[in-house]
Input
Amino acid sequence: MMNRQWVLDHYPDGPATLDTWRLIETPIPELGPRQILVRVQWLSLDPYMRGRISPAQNYTAGVKPGGAMHGGGVGEVIASSHPDWAVGDLVETMAMNWQEYAVVTPDLPGAARANRVPKDVPPQACLSWLGMPGLTAYVGLLEIGRPKPGETVVVSAASGAVGQVAGQIAKLMGARVVAIAGSDDKLAHCLGLGMDAGINYRTTKDLDAAIAAACPDGVDVFFDNTGGPIHDAVLANLAVRARVIICGRIAVVDKTPAEDIGLRASARLIVTRATIQGLVVFDWWHLRDEAFKHLAAWHRSGHIRFREDVLDGLERMPEAFLRMMAGGNHGKQLVRL
Amino acid sequence: MMNRQWVLDHYPDGPATLDTWRLIETPIPELGPRQILVRVQWLSLDPYMRGRISPAQNYTAGVKPGGAMHGGGVGEVIASSHPDWAVGDLVETMAMNWQEYAVVTPDLPGAARANRVPKDVPPQACLSWLGMPGLTAYVGLLEIGRPKPGETVVVSAASGAVGQVAGQIAKLMGARVVAIAGSDDKLAHCLGLGMDAGINYRTTKDLDAAIAAACPDGVDVFFDNTGGPIHDAVLANLAVRARVIICGRIAVVDKTPAEDIGLRASARLIVTRATIQGLVVFDWWHLRDEAFKHLAAWHRSGHIRFREDVLDGLERMPEAFLRMMAGGNHGKQLVRL
Output
């Protein structure tokens, strides 16, 4: 039985392109002990993947040219040598990778572990609001940003997978939420989710002034998914004792050299005594069960709603990735196999 | 009875100059209730003063042109309408200002409060290691940076008022300390205080590489007194879960515009999950007694030693300030009246 799999062709110099990866056919390996064979149904596209196809230092090892492209997914067990897993079970894991069939070792530690898909949600929710992006938003708000009721929270890439959840959790915590996104349609979606105001960073000439106007008492919590000029403009408007969560830098990650030149934070940090903290969700995997219990309850109560952007077919993975990196997606980018 | 007093002449555009202030003669005001008249003996020069002579937003109100220049000092009470203060008492306050005679209200809250000078230290210690700079170093290390034994701490402006104390507290906490300063003489002083290695930022061509070589396991705690290119070079070498204390930005505070352009931290913060926090010592004044008890004990045990740089005469205040801002001082800059 053959498998189709995307492997990294070469490290991109600047933005990834369609030929950054190539699709190969390989035999599906035999199952070892305590493994499962999964027919993949959904694959996730996430900005962290850009860091995995770079030779630069990162928080974890990346993909080497010729290696299978990393990624999370959901699928159905079609063979099992593991006593706890049976044919027909639905499984989610961050270690699914970009392929049709995955041999998964369910008992790996941390984020590589395989998890059962809950029965009362669409299975692909495990890749978005009830998955890694949901945990990211939960940790950023509950553990790092900790907005108080009435405080102002700014979320960049607010209509994205993490941003949608972050904005809605901030509302649940009683904060006022200002969404930043790249189109009026995305902002309308954010307002529809209950966020209070929106700024279109593509059409706003003076972002600093727009944030100042939208946040007259300053920004208490900034959930930064983009980096770059949006980051600078929000940092220029921090309130005293602000908390900044550095979660993503999609705006600058394709730049060469990879280091990011702009406004140094030092002046504002002293004036405001603010705190900036880098967030890598894989450090917080021990909070996964706690987060998912709350996220599921908030979803049942209607407080977490979510928009997906679905393309069909494994062959569209590179296209879906490029689309997400360029902000062409409307909601969480997924591929359905 | 007349008083000589330095007032701000105008906001400097770029670095301050000798004519940024002017020396005026004014009558000494009458004492109101619960006040003391102080003959000033020592005045402190500190980098925070640059922020007080700028119209830009700061953590507290600055000096307006024509107003008395802010500053801490030590002196002798020569008249008192306060029941707890007698002629001959030695007094220290952050609200002494640049003048020969000060009318002081001892009971003001927070940092403006007047405090007795301990009998077993040189009185000017209240302006350095047993004063605001000492508290700054204490809070930065004990409350924010929290180095663990064996971790690497980098201190910029390591031979300055805050830096000398920070480096020695870090040693007491069991850390390895790398000093950054602007001359070999200053570095020799830091090594004499027990710090482990030194980098001369003026003569080192590749600061990033020099820090990497001096900190082979990365920088766990960075006590940043300068900002600017030193900040960038240290941030490029953070260890995982590093803590960065943004305490001062003397390297860039004179730049116009005042906002500081350089390396954005976002990439490194995500890779390292580091935390950057702005420190304004006046937020931590409630820890003053605790800090001074420890600092005094460490001084008695010989673990805190300290170098001062003294100029004589009130008329030399602007010269002393310019000297400090340019790094021409060797140790804490003071003026003795």
Observations:
- The CA atoms of residues 126 and 208 of chain A lie 36 Å apart.
- Residues 2-128+307-336 of chain A form a domain with the Quinone Oxidoreductase; Chain A, domain 1 fold (CATH 3.90.180.10).
- Chain A touches chain B at residues 57-59, 224, 227-228, 231-232, 236, 240, 246-249, 252, 258-280, 283 (CB under 8 Å).
- The longest helix of chain A spans residues 132-145.
